[in-house]
Please model this.
Amino acid sequence: MEPANHLNQPEYGAIERAPVPRNMIENSMFEEEPDVVDLAKESPTNPIDSDDAVYEPRNSRLLVRGLGENDLDEDEEDYESSARLLGMSFMNRSSNQRSTSSPYTRQQPSGLCSMPSAKTLVVGVLILVLVASIAMVIYFLPGCTFTRNGCKKDNSTMDNIYPNSTSGEPFPWTDLRLPGGVHPVHYDISLHPNLTSMNFRGNISITVQVTEVTNKMVLHSSYMNIVKATFQGKEVKILEYKPWQQIAIKFPEDLQKGMYFLNIIYTANLSTSYDGFYNSSYVDTTGAKRVLATTQFEPLAARKAFPCFDEPAFKSTFLIKMIREPKYISLSNMPKAKTTDLKNGLLEDEFEKSVIMSTYLVAFVVAEFNSVSKNVSKTTVSVYAVPDKKDQIHYALDTAGKLLEFYNTFFDIDYPLLKLDLVAIPDFLAGAMENWGLITFRENMLLVGNDSSPIDKQLVTSVIAHELAHQWFGNLVTMKWWNDLWLNEGFATYMQYTSIETVFPDLDMDTEFLSIRFKALANDALNSSHPVSSIVKTPEQVEEMFDSVSYEKGASILLMLNSTLTEEEFRKGVIEYLQAHEFQNTKSEDLWNSLTNVSKQPFSVAQMMNTWTIQKGFPLVTVTRNGTQVTLTQEHFLLNAKNAPTHDSSLWHIPLTYVNDSCSALSSCKQVFHLKDKTATLKLPDQVKWLKFNYRSDGFYIVHYDNEGWEALIEALRNDVKVLTHKDRASLINNVFALSRLGKVPFRQVFNLMEYIKNETETAPLTEALIQLGQIFRLLDKRSELHLVSRMKSYILVYFGTLMGNQSWQLESSVSKMTLRSALLEMACSLDIANCTQQAKHLYDLWTAPNSTYQIPSDLMRTVFKVAAQTEEGWGVILETYKYSISDPEKHKALEALASTQDVRKILWILHKSLDGSVIPTPEFPLVVNAICKNFAGYLYAWDFVKENWDKITQKFPVGSFAIQSLITSTTSQFSTKTHLMEAQNFFSSLGDKGSQMRIVQEAIETIKLNKRWIETNLETLQEWL
Ligand SMILES: [Zn+2]
Model:
């Protein structure tokens, strides 16, 4: 899956690198609090509990899942013994289970003593602590965390506590994960959606294999009305436990090992949110409303369309039949086998039996679409869109064809299906979804019009490349469980950049990839971050895995590995992994083992990479040089609220790369040193003037030098920027800002390095500098530090003014130049620099002149629209453009411009219209909020709106999803005052099970604290230096 593009696309001007925050920094009270595992989580009666246990296993820091007032406000560190903490957590858990409001039916009384004397109390507590410790050990055994088999709690009381099913009978299962002894082998699914009444009827037959004798069968089902169920032809009673979206059958006698058939007839409404089997609609160019039905199952919504074993490891084959009216077409994963006339005005399409796959990859669409097709080796590739946009599908077809050829060769395994459809869906929440053979996209992620610029093409190409990579990484080989989602998303993200660099070198994906690595570092520096492979249990936790760590950090560590091995070794390892596990499920270690097998390196790939996937965060490497003697030290780069040491013992195996003044720009100059310990010494063969570590920023770490080291690098850059590659220059800028946040370098050091930027001409370092300065600018702006804001503006003008003035406003063809000019001009116009706004107005006038055929260059459109949208008349014109344009890139930019207005009434109007979906489709709501929050005028209104409408918002977007993550980050990431901190804390802790436990909430609180501390620390320096 690909998140919607506003999460990925950098934006300048009022600047932000997407809602995933780049945080101004240093500090958080989370500092000394090791992460918390919310042991009471299984009990739904425990929304927020400040006494949650603190426990840190040896190597993997587990997630804080509870967020209470004390977590937020308490600045004291808690160094209680782990035994006491474990005891506390155990008691929390027990008391929650005893709660009278618990949905569990306790079938066996607890054996705890009821009238304790002081002595028995002490003994009791000791026993409790002991029992709790044992329970914790079992709880955290890796086998228990990630696999079903190791987790059987046969002797625990949990087995005796069954929740009540809807009918009142005890539901025979007590875990969010399904039992392992029954596996689906094949599904026959027949569906009849009615696009007038917006409901559907389903008839499903599941062939299951019983591998362990059992008296029950448990599977997933959500929002369904079950009409009739038969097992082996005999009617059976279905029990349902709605909170866990499970249904079950209890058998009077044990089922022996063997094959069985379950049939269920059911009805359901087409979903009104954006997952499951949902109805989507749009208004065509004649003004008529058109409807269609489509699916979005990843991660947990196949169960909304048909009863199923909805976990990625329960792979099976699927045969799908779809009943439809003749005016629609239907599509599914596989090619259509036949169409039958049902003689009642309806047709039934039957698709071929699928390959073995996971439920979240099943898909079907019923719609009126136009398409184009072509053959690529044995596969027919087709692109579909609504009839109005049939002219915009050719670029995608051509691109998908080229990328399919590339992947067939690169992976050395042919795409296994005979067809591959790419479909643009008018009302779609994610960016795209990799359903096997039937990839669905947001329209602006697939359609390219005649006037689209190379930057629009870059986005479309990149999303197609990502989804095609999933056909291997994700579809052919799938992670066992969502804890290893990064195997899908990290790899697809990595391939999306590397495939395009090879197939479409003009699209300048290299710079783009560098920028997401910086983004990943910023996110992963927070204490609320998580390991790449994390513990995942609840649906919200599954949703939360679709974040920067899985995608961007995942891709970044793969790049680091690729640049440490040889290209050929890396590719061979990947091929071996895919071949060894095709049509199966894997864990991270399976990938590392394959790479270790083919590697000729003197170190174990698995051992090295484990240090990057099972602990959160990344290292800061400090370099001190004394002549030819270089001392290297690593520590966790952790932004925290206090300046006290963190007692953090994380160590990484870092393939440190470096170059020096005698040879620095070519790949052949790169040298490698493996830093595995806390400290090591590197002996240089000769004297050098300077050293630059992390060559081309291919490694996932930040480097700090001693004073002489920094001075020498700055001096070298001032003399000649070309002594380092443009990526090395960008990484120095990124690192120095990050180090100042961490408190390792004074902010004047940042200004010191920035001096060289006057001579900089390359996109990557300039855009990185603009992003960093833009962040500070916005923070000051939001605090109404008017004096500093105006001095910051002057500072930016001194360093970037000439470049801003030199940009052309004509058509441009180089992606790199376009990226740079849109960054510079968006910044210039947002700072209200007259040259820029006048030019923008001029282009707008040309465009709106009567009978004009003038097209605004696509990369300048957002800037021009934003300037125009500040007047009453301009806003109206852009609203009309938004409503009636059939070019998605144009619509998108128009929407951002509408949201950039300073007029509060308009801001409120657009917030309402995008949440209720009446003028602006609801999937755009996170984008609208993000765009509004960039400006001073609207950001507090947006925050209030999100707070007031939280219930409505969480009905539309799942708690934990990237849409929700985006909303929280957009609205809070620029807060930096105590008042806002308290307000955010109060609001989030009031959410209860509607979000208070989300990781993004902790990240938001942490970010506000870091912002506050950063301002307090640096205000003086800024006043002095700006
Ligand atoms: Zn993806």
Summary: The chain is about 40% helix and 20% strand. Residues 6-117, 137-159 have pLDDT under 50 and may be disordered. The pocket of zinc ion is lined by residues 1-2, 466, 470, 489, 492 (CB under 6 Å). The first helix runs from residue 69 to 73.
